[in-house]
Amino acid sequence: MAAVLKGSFYLLGRYRKHVDLVHVSARHMSSKTQVGFVGLGNMGNPMAKNLLKHGYPVVATDVFPEFCKEVQELGAQIVDNPAEVADKADRIITMLPSSPNVIDVYTGPNGILKKVKKGSLLIDSSTIDPAVSKEMAAAAEKQGAVFMDAPVSGGVGAASSGNLTFMVGGAEEEFNAAKELLTCMGANIVYCGQVGTGQAAKICNNMLLAIGMIGTSETMNLGIRLGLDPKLLAKILNMSSGRCWSSDTYNPVPGVMEGVPSGNNYQGGFGTQLMAKDLGLAQNTATNTKTPVPLGSLAHQIYRMMCARGYANKDFSSVFQFLREEESQ
Fold first, then answer.
1. Active-site residues: which are they?
2. Residues 149, 219: one domain?
3. Closest C-alpha among 203, 200, 201, 138 to residue 171
4. Mean pLDDT within 179-191
5. Residue 41 is part of a domain; what is its CATH number?
6. The domain containing residue 233 runs over which residues?
7. Which of 8, 120, 124, 177 falls between 20 and 30 A from 303, CA-CA?
8. Residue 127 and residue 97: Cα distance in Å, rounded?
C-alpha cells in the first residue's frame, strides 16, 4: 500500500511539475504576441529589428515606405498607416521626430486611437513636449488604452546594439509590462514617475549634452590654436577633471576618435536639427516653470544658427566645425 501511495505521489508531483512548465511556457509564448511599431527612421529601424531578433512578430508602418524595406525583409508585416497597426497589435511603440508628428500618429484621421483596442499598451519613445505626452495619455485613456512616454538616450549606435537607456513615465503598475518590451532594445530601463516625467528627464539630459558638446568643442579648438596636438589634449582632458562624454566617447574633433561622426564628416549620429528641437523644448519648459537656464538658452541659439548655416542634417558634434568656420570669418 505504501508503495502504491508513494508511486501516486511521485506521479502527482510529475503531473504538477508538468502543469507548471506548461503554464510558464504558455505565459512565455503569449508574451510574444504581435508588437506594433510606428516610425522606422534612424532610431526606429534598429529598435524594431531588435524586437524581431528577440522573437516578437512586428507589424509596422512609416510615412516613408522605403524606410520599411529592411524590417520587412527580416519578417515584419508592413501596413499602410498607424490605425492599421492598432487594428493588429495591442502593444505599440512609436518613435517619431516631433510633437506634431506624435499628435497626428495618435489622433489623426488614420491615427492609432481610431482603431485602438481596449487594454492596449502604447509606448511613445519620441522626444516631445511633456504636455503633449499628457494630452496623448488622456486621449488614450478615453479609448480604454494605456499611454506611457519612454524617450531614449544613446543614439543610433546604442539603438543598433540594444543598449539604449529608456526614461519611462506613466502608471507604475504598467511599468513591468512596458519593461518586457523595452529590455529587448535597451540596457537601462528607468521608471521616472507619472506621464511626462520621462520626457522631462530626456529634455534635461539633452540640454546638458548640448552644453557639454559646445564646451568640449570650444576647449579643443582653443587648445589646437595654442599649438596642442588634438589627440594629446583629448588624452589629458580624459584623465583630468574636464572629462565628459563629449570628450571621451564622442569627441567632436576629426581624427581624434574612430567610429564617431566627427571621423565621417559628421554624417550619421544625432542631427543638429533634432538637437535644436530638443533645446527648444527645454526652453519652453524653462519658461513655463520660470527656471533660469542661461547656458541652455545660449546653446539653443547656437544650434539654431547652425541650422541656418547648413548644418541641420549634420551630427550635433559638428558645432566644432561651426566654431572653426566662425573664427575664420
1. 202
2. no
3. 138
4. 98
5. 3.40.50.720
6. 201-323
7. 124
8. 7
The pTM of this model reads: 0.84
pLDDT per position as a tens digit, 227-257: 999 999 999 999 999 999 999 999 999 999 9
Instruction: Write down which residue in 147, 177, 193 finishes a domain.
Output: 193
Interatomic CA distance for residues 6 and 19, integer angstroms: 20
Assess if residue 329 is contained within a domain.
no
- What Å distances lie between residue 147 and 88, 124, 178, 253, CA to CA? 17, 8, 10, 41
Say if 10 falls within a structural domain. yes
Give the span between the Cα atoms of 115 and 130, in whole angstroms: 24
Query: pLDDT tens across 60-113, in order?
Result: 999 999 999 999 999 999 999 999 999 999 999 999 999 999 999 999 999 999
Q: Which amino acid is at 83?
A: A
Find the DSSP H helices in 193-318: 197-225, 230-237, 245-248, 272-288, 294-308
Phi and psi at 188, nearest 5°, equal: -130, 115
C-beta separation of 137 from 105 below 8 A: no
Boundary residue ending a domain (193, 228, 256): 193
